[in-house]
Amino acid sequence: IPLPLFFSPCDYHGHYAYSSLRVVLTFVSRPTLHDKLREQIGPPRADADGQGPRIAVVWGIGGVGKSQLVLDYHLRHRHEYSASFWVDASRKQTIDRDFLAISKVLFNVPDSTKDDVRVEDAILAVKKWFSGGSGRWIFVFDGADNIGEPALEGNVDITHYFPDVSSIDIILVSRSGRVAKMVHEPVRVAELETEQAKHLFLARAGLGPTIARDAIAEEIVTTLGCLALALSLSGTYVSKTARLKKNLDEYLKEYRQRRKQILSRKPALVKEYGESVLTTWETTYDAIVQGG
Question: Which chain positions lie within coiled-coil regions (predicted)?
Fold first, then answer.
């Protein structure tokens, strides 16, 4: 199928993402999970022509730190790639939006025709660009929860967007167990270990570790299920509440009385975690509230 005449390919080296993401300052490194992901999409394959892209799946419940883990991996290894592309895969509309934007960085599309680009033309153009290019690239499809579920409203055929090129690595970040089954060895991200959880909570709260705080922090992180996002939200709340910083053991009492208000204070973390990650918070929050 021929592309529209105004699709003139250009040489692109960079990182595309609709929203700016960064690893949070209190990111908890998980070397074992990093290494598992590295095993899936490590160094370039020899004689990989015709094999198609390599696909890795990072999965787990909302709020455990999947996107942050993948973002940390990307920052460590992006020098190995000619370019990288971070796609919000939470809905078909956001994937289409990102592929339209990607087509405009891979092709010299005149300003006069930018509004005339059809989504399917953009998807086709992007896929053809990679098949005709030389280099190594990585795609991250973040929030890929509604895929592989034909009967589900909003189901997305994610493979429709995959360039069929062996020099591309693809990471799917998802809460869906069905998505995990797309590969032989998915990377499962579970809750933090208790010590990691305490460190994250206290760091977010702006408090140093002490023997007295350690016991209180352990009770807090256990109540919060050792979920990274929950700990970040709650720790941030403590950091901004002077009376709780002075008397941390009052936190659980207040949390049990007002957990809905405490856990819903997320706007300050939007830029750090990214919109696609925070959209999973409702599920995580509901689980904690019901369990508390």
Answer: none
